[in-house]
Amino acid sequence: MKRVAIVGCGFVADLYMRSFAAHPEIEVVSCYDRDEARLEAFSKYWNVTAAADLETVFTEIADTGLILNLTNPRSHYDVNKGALEAGCHVFCEKPLAMSYEDAQSLHAMARARGLQLGSAPSSVLGEAAQTLAKAVRSGDYGTPRLVYAELDDGFIPQAPLEDWKSESGAPWPYVDEFQIGCTLEHAGYYLSWLIAMFGAVTRVNAVSADILPDKRDVADAAPDFSVAVLEFQDGPLVRLSCSIAAPHDHRMRVVTDRGVLAVKKAWDNAAPVKFYKRMRLRRRLLESPLAKRIRLTAKETHPKLPRKGAAAMNFALGPAEMLEAIGTNQDSRIGGDFALHLTEVTLAIQNAGLGGGAYLPKSTCAKMEPMPWAH
């Protein structure tokens, strides 16, 4: 049995617990939250042992499993550092830390101690992402020339945020969400796919801004809009946008010299991947309205979850892959260099400001090895 201990029992922790139910090979052995009421509600709802303190969680899981860090992003560095110092492998919600320097120090610590340190999001390990990556690798649909990736969520400040609660009763932390910002929260969903397909980002050209003055009177709000043009080690130019203002749009479109590969739902592991072939009709050039759906040859990929709220995602894919890597003494696909590079590029976009300008990442990573069922 593979073992996981959860630190942080807020809104997202319930999404992970729903996902672990589809992975009977993984046991959640304990949980901890500094908010005693939240810890009690979560542990009772999910029937998970509540730990007395962080040290107990670390001691219990060291060398035998994985710490799942689901705390507020501002606490990620401290919890990750404490877990690594205690000899624990760590899978952390995004980002690894709030600064590249802190993320780099965690990366170095994990490497020096022979520990795995990985980062959400896990969707890059899902069927939709792996199908798109295989289509790009194959060359059957043309050479990628340009990518548009959209992570716009609608005018979120006007949504009924106070009514959003998790299964065990945790409120959606909209104050934290506004203070952390939609780029840190969401850019990784497609940025991880892009890095997996095209390798390291070599240049970030970005602008970020706080364009909505009234977000429930939340002070110190982070940018609620960003747009980046990314240059890759081996790939096309990419435009990546994030906002909580523009109408909901979660499409990725890979423009090739033969047509367009498209996915419409970033947060659905089973989202269809389609190819719209370019064609000439009389004097017009257009993409065919009749798309070809691209499928993997494997009949079984990974456990999928029904839609819950805004997503149909298996949040346990990352922890499950990392536990498998630990068990076979291999590097996790979404750990190590990959996690550090994803964090650095996301922070560069978030911190670009209105002045924009170019940022040259200091870290690098290789393209992702496909999942076994995606070859």
UniProtKB/TrEMBL annotation:
Family matches, as Pfam families: GFO_IDH_MocA (PF01408), GFO_IDH_MocA_C3 (PF22725)
Domain Gfo/Idh/MocA-like oxidoreductase N-terminal stretches: 3-117
SUPFAM superfamilies (alphabetical): Glyceraldehyde-3-phosphate dehydrogenase-like, C-terminal domain, NAD(P)-binding Rossmann-fold domains
Gene Ontology MF annotations: nucleotide binding
GFO/IDH/MocA-like oxidoreductase domain boundaries: 130-261
InterPro entries according to UniProt: Gfo/Idh/MocA-like_OxRdtase_N (IPR000683), Gfo/Idh/MocA_Oxidoreductases (IPR051450), GFO_IDH_MocA-like_dom (IPR055170), NAD(P)-bd_dom_sf (IPR036291)
Protein name: Predicted dehydrogenase
Source organism of the structure: Lentibacter algarum
